[in-house]
Amino acid sequence: xxxxxxxxxxxxxxxxxPVHALRENTRVTTTRGPTLCPPVTHPSxxxxxxxxxRRTVVRYAVLAFLFAITAINYGDRxxxxxxxxxxxxxxxxxxxxxxxxxxxxxxxxxxxxVPGGWLLDRYGSIRVYGVSLFAWSICTLAIAGIxxxxxTIAFPALFVLWAGLGLVEAPTFPANSRIVSSWFPTSERxxxxxxxxxxxxxxxxxxxxxxxxxxxxxxxxxxFIAMGVAGMGLALFWLARMRPPAAHPAVNAAxxxxxxxxxxxxxxxxxxxxxxxxxTRRQIRFMLTDRTLLGVYGGQYCITAILYFFLTWFPLYLHxxxxxSMTQTGLAASVPALCGLAGAIxxxxxxxxxxxxxxxxxxxxxxxxxIGMAVASTICLCNFVHSALLIVAIMSFAxxxxxxxxxxxxxxxxxxxxxxxxxxAGIFNGIGNIAGIVTPIVIGYxxxxxxxxxxxxLFVAAHCIVAILLYLFVVGRIRRLSLPD
Length: 485
What we know:
By secondary structure, this protein is an all-alpha fold. About 70% of the residues lie in helices and about 0% in strands. The chain contains 19 helices and no strands. Helix 2 (about 60-90) runs parallel beside helix 9 (about 200-220). It holds the Pfam family MFS_1. It comes from Acetobacter fallax. It is a multi-pass membrane protein.
C-alpha cells in the first residue's frame, strides 16, 4: 500500500507514526513501497500545517519520557536509604560502614559529571542516555544479589556497586538539559525543565512509601529487582524508539520549524556538529571562569543544599527534635515533597508566561529563582514555633519555594555555548551536587556541637540568601554564551 500524505503526519504523538511526516523541501516518504509523491512546493508543508493548526506535539511525549526516566533515577537513589536498616542487619554492617557506602554514590556522581557531559557532546544524547540508563539498572539489579555472597566481601561489593551507580548515572541530568534544549523553544523551556526536574519530588513522595511496604512484606532484595528491571525495560525502549528532532518520524515540518525558530537546538545531535577535537585551554578556562556561568553554578549549589537537607536530615529533625513517631515522620516528610512538586510546575510556568508576555529572558528566568529562594529562606522560622503541624506547614511552604526556584536547568540550557551544552550542564550539576556531600556532614557537626537543629536551619536559610545575591549581582544577562576562538 502506498502512503501519500499532505500537510502533517498523524498517529502516536510520542514515537514513530505509521505515516511519516513531511519535512521542509523534502519528498513525502512512505512506510512501504517506493516514494511516488512529487515534492510539495506550493504551499510549503510548513505553511500549510501552520495555517491549519495541525502542528504535532511530539516534544511533550519526549518530555513525559524524560519525566519517567528521572523518576526511576531518583527511585534508584532512594532504594539504599529505604532498605538500609534491613541491609545493615542482614549483612552485619556497622553504621560507619553504611555511612561510607552512602557516600560512595555522591563522590562518584560528582567526579564523573564533567566526563559525562563531554560524552554527551561527543557521542550524542540518545546513545549515551540509553547506555547510562541500562548500566545503572544493571548495578541496581546486582545489589539484589549482595545477600548471597559471603559477608566478608559484602561491604566492598556494596560499596563498589553503589559507587558504580553514581558513576553511570552522571550523564542523566545533563542529558535531560541537553535534550530539552534540542526539543523545546526558549518560550517553553522553563516549564519543560521544571517538569523533568519535578520527578525527584515524585520519587520521594511516592516511591519511598511503596518501597518501604515491599521491603517489609517481601524483603529488601525485591525493591532492587523491581527498579532494575523497570530501568532496563525503559533503556531498551528509549534506544529503539528515540530519535533527534530532525530525524524523528513522528515530528512534522511545522513542529520542527516552530522549535527551530523559537531557539531550540534541533541539530544538536547532528554527528557533523558534535565535538571532534579537544577544547582549547582558553575555552576550558572560559567554562570555569565566566561570571554568568559561575553565578549559575553557585546558585545550583545553594538550591541543592536545601534539597539534601530534606533528603537526609529532615526526617531525623522531625523524629528527634519534634518527637514525631516514625510513621508520623514518614507521612509528614511526603507533604513538603508534594509542595515542591507543585512549586516546580508553578516556577516553570511563571517563567514561560513572562517570556510570552514580552518580558526579557533575564527577568523571566531570574524572577522565579529569586522569589522562590526568598520563600525557601522561611525555613528558619521553624526555630520559633513548637507545634509539629505548624512546623510541617512552614517546611512545606519553604519546599514550595525551593520548587519555584528550580529554574536553574532552564538557565543553563539558555546560556550554555551551543558547542558544549553537555559539558556546561555537567559542570553545573557537578558543582551543585557537591552540596550533597558537604551539607549532610556540616549539619551533622552542627547538631553534634550544639545539641540542637536551630543552627542547621539557619545554615540552610543562609544558602537561600547567598543564592539570591548571586542571581542579582553575579549572574549577568541571560543569553546564549559563545566560546572564545
